[in-house]
Amino acid sequence: MRAVIQRVKNAKVEVEGEIVGSISKGLLVLLGVKKGDTEDDGIWIAEKIVNLRIFEDDAGKMNKSLLDIGGELLLVSQFTLLGDARKGRRPSFSDAAPPEEAEKLFEFVVRYLSQRYNNLKIETGVFGAMMDVHLVNWGPVTILLDSEKIF
């Protein structure tokens, strides 16, 4: 799995002009599922997301996690994170999981986080929909994660 994590002051997702997910202070996570990903990949990335220490403590150092600050989480599926643009000018998405497999693992991550951290507010976009994502990136702070740990 691959994730782009953005620390935000607020974020929302709209589908056809309607807000389907909205958070205040927390993390907006764009999540892509790769062919061959498993629930273990989902657990690894979920735990990494909520425990990353990218919020400032009283001394101004990035030392607190989403859980530490009582922040909120907005998860948005995005298969284009698996795009490979190394050759030519048009990205190849052949590494992205098929939609039914990707949706199943995306929903697994949401369910896992909801059950393990029942005080955490979790919002999502709509899987497979054309979405407008609005955010105020706080910092800005943006972190890239990959469950294969390639970066």
Question: How would you characterize this protein structure?
Answer:
This protein has 151 residues and is of the alpha/beta class. The protein has one domain: D-tyrosyl-tRNA(Tyr) deacylase (D-tyrosyl-trna(Tyr) Deacylase, Chain: A, 3-Layer(bba) Sandwich). It is 23% helix and 37% strand. The chain has helices spanning 39-51, 66-69, 99-116; strands spanning 2-15, 18-23, 26-32, 55-56, 62-64, 72-77, 122-124, 132-146. The strands form two sheets. Strands 1, 2, 3, 6, 7 and 8 form a six-stranded mixed beta sheet that branches. The protein has a two-stranded antiparallel sheet with strand order 4-5. A hairpin with a 5-residue loop joins strand 4 (55-56) and strand 5. Helix 1 (39-51) crosses helix 3 (99-116). It starts with a strand and ends in a 5-residue tail after the last strand. 32% of the residues are buried. The mean pLDDT is 97.
Task: Draw up the topology in text.
Layout lengths: L1 E14 L2 E6 L2 E7 L6 H13 L3 E2 L5 E3 L1 H4 L2 E6 L21 H18 L5 E3 L7 E15 L5
Helix pairs in contact: 1-3
List keywords for this structure.
globular; 37% strand; D-tyrosyl-trna(Tyr) Deacylase, Chain: A; 23% helix; 8 strands; 151 residues; alpha/beta
| Ends distance | 12 Å
For this structure, the CATH topology is: D-tyrosyl-trna(Tyr) Deacylase, Chain: A
CATH architecture group name: 3-Layer(bba) Sandwich
Class by alpha and beta content: alpha/beta
Report the biggest beta sheet as strand number plus sense, adding barrel if it closes.
6 strands, mixed
Strand % is: 35-45%
In oligomeric terms, what are we looking at? single chain
- The CATH homologous superfamily is called D-tyrosyl-tRNA(Tyr) deacylase
Q: Work out the number of β strands.
A: 8
Question: How many helical elements?
Answer: 3
| Assigned CATH class | Alpha Beta
- Given as residue ranges, the uncertain stretches (5+ residues, pLDDT < 50) are none
Computed CA radius of gyration, to the nearest angstrom = 15 Å
Total individual domains: 1
